[in-house]
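Supplementary Note 3. Input sequence used for the single-chain structure prediction.
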Amino acid sequence: MGEAARRKLVWLGLAVALAYLALYATAWHLALSNPRNIVNGTQAANRVIEHQAESMFSLLGLYAANLLTAMMAIITSIDALSGEIASGAIQTLAAKPIRRWQILLGKWLGFVLLLTAFQLVLDGGVMAIAWAYSGYIAPHAGFGIALMWGEMVLLLTLTLLWGTRLSTLANGVLSLGLFGVAFLGGWIEQIGALTNHPRAVHAGIVASLIMPSEALWRRAAFEMQSPLMSAMQLGPFTSASVPSIAMVVYAALYTAVALAVALRSFATRDL
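The predicted structure, written as discrete structure tokens, is reproduced below.
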């Protein structure tokens, strides 16, 4: 990318994050402006129900923020390699006295830093807004954000991996398609667990093994929801089927292997 393109990307990402946070804050304001609303601390029937409502509202905000971060990870890096290879711009870098794996690793680190800042603005903003309006802080917030960060890094790494061999269009189709498979598989697993359909649960687990991105979010949601919601399996982020820590480790290894393969693939590709 050129310097101007990088600056534009940063400002567009910041505009998206701020627009979302403004919308989320407006939702909280409107909810609290209704004296009959369950998240209104002055009128709630009891504090337990109010607390669950605050937890749900916070998780919904983090859920949307996580989707935005995932989309940004794919969209911003989709032509980082394939586009420069197709245009021949990559040859300028390849001609310098640096190894190809260093070029790819430098791009990967740059995107990780950029997307980490984007995620911290979004997730931190959501939690700050929830705290400012209700005093609610999600439990295990640090671990939950770390899991969502892992999902972002996984999606970024896979997108760069496909970019070492595929065109920008093919890369986009494959990256978004796998993300969609994981997203749908996660919901199928949850619904299967709630309705006692083992085959649906197994199908969701297979989808997570193919693409573990959604499993990281579901574990993050489990960690950050209130204990009562977990025990009673309330809300859209029910803990009916929770990805294990083994799945989290699998996702980390999956990402590491994908990065290693990407470095090898780019190093051996004809430019």
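The chain has one domain: 3-268. The mean pLDDT is 84.
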